[in-house]
């Protein structure tokens, strides 16, 4: 269907398109600073100009998609599609898939230093570390990067919220490997893919184990551990080759477990100073400010003792609700006034996050168009470009 309704000489066109493809175009166009209709126009132009064989694209689950094309283009597109014996929705799906293929999201090169390591932390409980770890990982994976999420919290919320059963206390686990108690099992066997067309097999999770409750105490006394703070890095190195980003969802505690995560997130030799590092999730309330001070003390201690460079990449103010009045607004201002680390995101208290947790689905899969999902994508954009 075509309606000439646009003063800029564009025609409104409705074609069927799979929702996932539509979403990916929307995200990539936004990343490239383009209007979606311009991205679609480019894609169709390139498809028409390319007379080579175009591989078939899966179009099941297609829904109505409306865009505006330059005048006359829709007619020409239909003619070319007909001459190539392609249904119009198949032709559009091919054009957009090829457009995406030719414009990979820019991710920094990992060859020299390995993946970017992002440590999501705060010893204060319930501020949203797990929600932000997952949303960030989903947003980065949606943009064609390979992401490994580490459930480093013995509560295993990340594992269960993404729909998996946490490891049993007697099962092999990251924590056991860190303590040298489990040598035979390859950590890869504890990694599961987070399935969704959005992530295209690029988002993986290293499942959590309640055994990690013993990490702090055991790391303090484990015989044979030369350096207690490096056990996490030692174990994760074996997995890193397959990923562009590793994101660690930390437990709400300070101690050897956290020291391991902070050490893991340090700036390595040859790495950009603002690449790997720490992301601190807070709320706009006074107790969060106290918790932040404690975390900073811990960070100063470990960076001083071990002579580390650790980038404080930013603060995310989560569960923000300005209706809570002066405490909320002045606390938010307080976080902004810090200046360094910068406030990278202010994420409202919205229902979609809780609903996604209830149905055990990734937020971006459950509510891809929600404000909450947009906040996560914006955070990813500000954090990793
Ligand atoms: N922006 C948000 N809007 C609505 N609900 C949220 C938001 N962020 C987190 N939540 C919900 O708040 C609860 C606590 O969040 P989450 O588990 O991510 O916190 P946490 O810091 O990881 O907690 P813990 O310290 O126990 O690990 C969860 O039910 C989560 O779904
Ligand atoms: Mg958590």
Protein described:
It is a single chain. The protein is an alpha/beta fold and 385 residues long. The chain folds into two domains: 2-101, Arc Repressor Mutant (Orthogonal Bundle); 116-384, P-loop containing nucleotide triphosphate hydrolases (Rossmann fold, 3-Layer(aba) Sandwich), CATH 3.40.50. It is 42% helix and 17% strand. The protein has helices at 19-31, 36-49, 73-83, 88-101, 129-142, 157-161, 174-178, 215-221, 231-240, 256-264, 286-306, 326-338, 351-359, 363-366, 371-384; strands at 2-4, 10-18, 62-70, 116-121, 147-151, 191-193, 203-206, 245-249, 277-282, 312-320, 343-348. It has an eight-stranded mixed beta sheet, with helices on both faces. α11 links the parallel β9 (277-282) and β10. α1 packs across α2 and α2 packs parallel to α3 (73-83). The longest helix is centred in the C-terminal third of the chain and has 21 residues, at 286-306. It starts with a strand and ends with a helix. The model has no long low-confidence stretch (mean pLDDT 91). It binds adenosine-5'-triphosphate and magnesium ion. Residues 125-131, 153, 155, 157, 252, 318-319, 347, 349-350, 353-354, 357 line the site of adenosine-5'-triphosphate.
């Amino acid at each position: 269907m075509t309606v000439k309704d646009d003063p800029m000489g564009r025609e409104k066109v409705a074609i069927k398109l799979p929702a996932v493809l539509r979403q990916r175009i929307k995200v990539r166009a936004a990343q490239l600073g383009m209007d979606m209709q311009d991205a679609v126009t480019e894609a169709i132009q390139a498809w028409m100009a390319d007379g080579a064989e175009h591989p078939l694209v899966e179009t099941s689950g297609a829904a109505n998609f409306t865009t505006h094309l330059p005048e006359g283009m829709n007619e020409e597109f239909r003619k070319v599609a007909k001459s190539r014996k392609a249904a119009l929705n198949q032709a559009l799906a091919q054009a957009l898939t090829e457009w995406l293929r030719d414009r990979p999201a820019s991710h920094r090169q990992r060859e020299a230093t390995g993946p970017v390591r992002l440590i999501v932390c705060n010893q204060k409980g319930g501020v949203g570390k797990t929600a932000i770890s997952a949303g960030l990982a989903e947003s980065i994976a949606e943009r064609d990067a390979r992401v490994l999420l580490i459930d480093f919290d013995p509560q295993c919320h990340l594992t269960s919220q993404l729909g998996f059963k946490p490891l049993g206390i007697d099962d092999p686990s990251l924590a056991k490997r860190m303590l040298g108690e489990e040598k035979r099992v390859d950590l890869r066997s504890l990694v599961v893919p987070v399935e969704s067309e959005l992530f295209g097999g690029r988002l993986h999770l290293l499942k959590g184990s309640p055994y990690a409750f013993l990490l702090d105490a055991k790391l303090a006394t484990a015989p044979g551990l030369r350096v207690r703070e490096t056990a996490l890095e030692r174990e994760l190195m074996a997995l890193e080759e397959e990923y562009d980003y590793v994101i660690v969802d930390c437990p709400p505690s300070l101690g050897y477990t956290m020291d391991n995560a902070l050490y893991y997130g340090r700036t390595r030799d040859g790495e950009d100073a603002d690449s790997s590092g720490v992301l601190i999730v807070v709320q706009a309330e006074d107790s969060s400010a106290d918790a932040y001070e404690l975390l900073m003390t811990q960070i100063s201690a470990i960076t001083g003792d071990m002579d580390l460079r650790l980038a404080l990449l930013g603060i995310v103010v989560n569960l923000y609700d300005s209706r809570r009045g002066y405490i909320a607004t002045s606390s938010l201002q307080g976080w902004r006034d810090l200046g360094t680390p910068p406030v990278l995101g202010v994420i409202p208290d919205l229902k979609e996050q809780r609903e996604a947790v209830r149905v055990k689905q990734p937020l971006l899969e459950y509510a891809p168009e929600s404000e909450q999902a947009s906040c996560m994508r914006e955070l990813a954009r500000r954090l990793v470009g």
